[in-house]
Here is the input.
Amino acid sequence: MNNLYMPELALVDDIKEETPNIRTLTISLKSRKPLSALPGQFVELTIFGYGEFPVSVSAVLGPTKDRLQTTIQRIGRVTKETANLSVGSTIGIRGPFGNGFPLAEMKGKNICIVTGGVGLAAVRYLINYIIENRDHYGKLQLLHGARTPGDLIYKDFLFNKEKAQEQGIEILLTVDQPDTGWEGHVGVVTELFKRTTLDPVNTMAVVCGPSIMMKFATQCLSDMGFGDDQILVSMERRMQCGMGMCGHCMVGQKRVCLDGPVFTYGSIKEALERAF
Here is the structure.
């Protein structure tokens, strides 16, 4: 996109209700231009008449990469307006912004992804990318937690054990508050470390989710022997304007929207400990 200050007109092509307050939008530009983005990057979506907000790119679709998906939790004044969007609605889009994941550095390594809540949306594109390039990466694990079973997003992906086996991904799930039908693990996501083999040798860990979850997950990984530069954290929750102008996303001296949203734990460790 030529002018990152000016939203381009886009259409909502499809909507999938993930939970009562989270939905995944499939979006295309009215110009039908490709929507190039890297795993870990984000875009700014405009709801005309209400404002804009940052959201991670959770997938890029189509043979010409002309559609992208974003998964949005309705928690603020503007994001709540996404409940009124329907297929065919016109919205605006700016971006993509941010640095994305260091795919070249991750190549050839085992990847352990630890997420909580809607934080899974920020790494869904990364998971897709690794699956599509499966021969270039080692063991792939996803450890994911949610508050309740009803709060789990991407259920078709998370609960398809046969497909997960075909794709070479190990998925472990947990919830804080089970319902009567839940047969899986109950507890915080860091307890899943005890239920799988995780060797820091030739492994990179990716962490994204609520601040308290990220604090304890990074601490656990450090205690297990992961070096600070073996842990990648996505700070997508702290983003706002996307251009480093507003200052709302500052972590120490870093602007998340310009210097991130993906960081090595070592590069912002001290600032993160204060932020958490």
The two ends are 35 Å apart (CA to CA). The chain has seven helices and 16 strands.
